[in-house]
Amino acid sequence: MSGHHHPEAEMGDRRVLWAVVINTALTVAQIIGGIFAGSLSLIADAMHNFSDAISLAIAFAARRIARRPADEAMTFGYVRAEIVAALINYTTLIIVGLYLAYEAILRFAEPHPVAGWIVVIVAGIALAVDVVTALLTYALSKKSMNVRAAFLHNVADALGSLGVIVAGTLIILYEWYIIDPLVTLLIAGYVLWQAFAEIGASVRLLMLGTPHDLDINALVDALRDVEGVHDLHHVHAWAIDENHNALEAHVVVADESGIDDEVKRQIKALARDRFDIRHTTLEIERPGMPCAEERAQLIGHRIAPSGHSHADGNKKAVT
Q1: What's the domain count of the chain?
Q2: What's the pTM value of the predicted model, to 2 decimals?
């Protein structure tokens, strides 16, 4: 579906690659500074920044893979590589957040002296790099769940750097060493909040969930109102990727010759124009004619169950 290499995509790749390079360099500088300063929050910020570099590298690779054309192994193409990358990045964000919280709690029990000036200087440099990275990836994050996951890594890290600067300043002025693990805990909390808030969308897409902006019951009602449609069942709507939705359904039409093609045309036009569904697959049936799944069940269950749900209640749209 997307095997073409456009200049805009290549420019986006270059932006992400530059973001990887500068974040990797920053990570090394932060770790060195954190060790010399004895600052857990600076090392924590470095770890999070390293996760930024990794997430950006994953985002870069996924963007390249996603543009590969469809083949025999992947007939829809490789567009979901970006969704898989987003899920990986959100998962690593959760792991990083939990680890930072664990380290902060340990440091509360045993505070360590911290060299405030080193913390402030290194964190200031980190904040500047975070801002540059955000500028490189902001526009791309609006269009791609994959890049958005990496961008959120970066935003969380920028806020973390800001928090580290505040902690270092308070240590210089008041020797409040307890502020170092406190800031670390706040960074961890924000990281976890962002990750849990965003990870659901990638899981939903990979689980073939109904697109979040699609009212499935409204879709079914609209399709049943199409002239010539007698009934509708086995309706399945899902997102192929962030920009392409798909629909399949069994459509029962009146027993009239020549009506099938017209019903298909109307349903596809309705799905496209009103619900933004561009990929529609329809199976036409006649009243009283059992569908393929029902015919299979009539043959002594020799064919494996299809897994279609016939539940009532709020599941009525997919039966």
Answers
A1: 2
A2: 0.70
Domain range spanning residue 54? 7-206
Residue positions counted in the chain: 319
Q: Is pLDDT at 142 greater than 70 in this prediction?
A: yes
Q: Pick the residue with more confidence: 111 or 277?
A: 277
Which segments of the chain are extended strands (E)?
Answer: 229-241, 244-253, 277-285
Q: Is residue 211 part of a domain?
A: no
Tokens 């980190």 belong to 126
Asked if 82 and 62 touch (Cβ cutoff 8 Å), the reply is yes
Residues 37, 118 contacting (CB under 8 angstroms): yes
* Higher-scoring residue by pLDDT: 250, 99: 250
Q: Which of 168, 157, 80 is nearest to 126 (CA)?
A: 157
**Predicted local confidence at residue 48, as pLDDT:** 66
Report how far residue 76's alpha carbon sits from residue 100's, in angstroms, rounded to the nearest whole number.
Answer: 39
Q: pLDDT of 21-41, one tens digit each?
A: 877 877 787 778 777 777 766
Cα–Cα distance for residue pair 7/11, rounded to 1 Å? 6
Verify that 134 and 185 share a domain, yes or no.
yes
Task: Indicate which CATH number applies to the domain containing 254.
Answer: 3.30.70.1350
pLDDT at 157 over 60: yes
206, 240, 270: which is the final residue of a domain?
206
Which residues are within 8 A (CB) of 32 and not within 5 positions of it... i.e. 6 or more apart?
A: none
Token digits of residue 67: 């543009």
Q: Which of 184, 206, 228 is the last residue of a domain?
A: 206
Across all residues in the chain, what is the average pLDDT? 78
> Average pLDDT, stretch 191-208?
88
CATH of the domain at 157: 1.20.1510.10
